[in-house]
Structure to design on (318 residues):
């Protein structure tokens, strides 16, 4: 099918997705759109709707496992919808961000104002829209804020309404937030995220603390190899996890630290990371993590739940 003129300047066919995700795996997208404006994003989605083509969304790809068979239909990547506008008032520091604005860039804005959100945002990969989708954050109990739920004022979402697409606004309270998940706004494309924090709460030693947080990550995580960060959410609420062990501790206790499947490895540095040692397939990664799930279930009766999302054609494999 040939692409209409309205989207052909920012949409390509048969695009390999390996460089669009942090695990560096996966096959091709039938179509990949990289819109630079809201209107372009809407046109791409309208085209897909009129042709009854499946749509998937992608930010920076740091929390997805893309199938080796690729992704059918249109993948809309928000990378270029990355504008950040300061809409602060007297009392509140406020940033209106395009879906694809990087957390790192947002972190720098908060850091410049010596405001606490810089602390949890430091070292978090990906963009702000996926930050909302995943309620991304850190586990340090003493930090406030430590998750997106605590800094989001509102989001805008492009959703289907009958035969057309319309943008809706959701306030923080309209969204159902939970650990590494948000619901109540989808399905749809998050196009804008507004973040807010009181101006009065300045943190005096913030630059040092951001640096410390980044160094701590470097010392604990295998950041030199492709990964998706933590593979599993921490199963602290599982009733069988009486000792409240982290996912990494359980995998390590199951004897799997350093285990290799093909070119995928359960990291020797941090057992809740599965790294691509070079040319791993998505299936290698899936098999390694499935084994960890199985062994932890068998030994400790604890269910490990994937934090990342499977994307594309996984039929018959999951
Ligand atoms: C080294 C490393 C460390 C990490 N550390 C952390 C951490 O400390 N804490 C943490 O929470 N996460 C962490 N992560 C995971 C990941 O960075 C976050 O979940 C991040 O928010 C994902 O952002 P992304 O832009 O890469 O999203 P993607 O992986 O591109 O997408 C994630 C999901 O959101 C959907 N999506 C993306 N954009 C939109 C949109 N605009 N509208 C609707 N749906 C959309 C996708 O379809 C997908 O289901 C880490 C990852 C890595 C690689």
């Amino acid at each position: 099918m040939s692409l209409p003129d309205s989207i052909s300047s920012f949409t390509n066919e048969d695009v390999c997705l390996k460089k669009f995700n942090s695990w560096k795996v996966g096959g091709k997208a039938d179509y990949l759109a990289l819109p630079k404006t809201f209107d372009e994003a809407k046109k791409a989605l309208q085209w897909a709707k009129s042709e009854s083509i499946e749509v998937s969304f992608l930010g920076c790809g740091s929390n997805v496992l893309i199938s080796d068979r690729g992704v059918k239909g249109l993948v809309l990547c928000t990378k270029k919808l990355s504008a950040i506008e300061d809409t602060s008032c007297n009392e509140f520091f406020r940033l209106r961000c395009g879906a694809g604005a990087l957390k790192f860039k947002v972190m720098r804005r908060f850091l410049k104002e010596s405001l606490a959100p810089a602390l949890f945002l430091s070292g978090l990969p990906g963009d702000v829209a996926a930050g909302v989708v995943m309620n991304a954050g850190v586990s340090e109990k003493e930090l406030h804020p430590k998750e997106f739920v605590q800094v989001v004022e509102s989001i805008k979402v492009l959703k289907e309404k009958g035969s057309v697409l319309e943008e809706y606004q959701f306030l923080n309270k309209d969204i159902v937030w939970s650990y590494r998940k948000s619901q109540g706004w989808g399905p749809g494309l998050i196009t804008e995220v507004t973040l807010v924090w009181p101006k009065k709460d300045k943190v005096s030693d913030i630059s040092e603390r951001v640096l410390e947080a980044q160094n701590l990550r470097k010392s604990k995580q295998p950041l030199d190899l492709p990964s998706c960060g933590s593979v599993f959410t921490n199963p602290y609420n599982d009733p069988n996890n009486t000792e409240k062990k982290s996912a990494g501790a359980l995998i390590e206790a199951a004897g799997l630290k350093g285990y290799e499947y093909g070119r995928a490895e359960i990291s020797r540095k941090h057992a809740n990371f599965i790294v691509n040692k070079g040319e791993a397939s998505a299936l290698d990664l899936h098999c390694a993590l499935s084994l960890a799930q199985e062994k932890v279930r068998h030994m400790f009766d604890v269910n490990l739940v994937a934090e990342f999302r499977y994307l594309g054609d996984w039929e018959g494999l999951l």
The CA atoms of residues 123 and 216 lie 10 Å apart. The longest helix spans residues 282-300. DSSP finds eight helices and 16 strands in the chain.
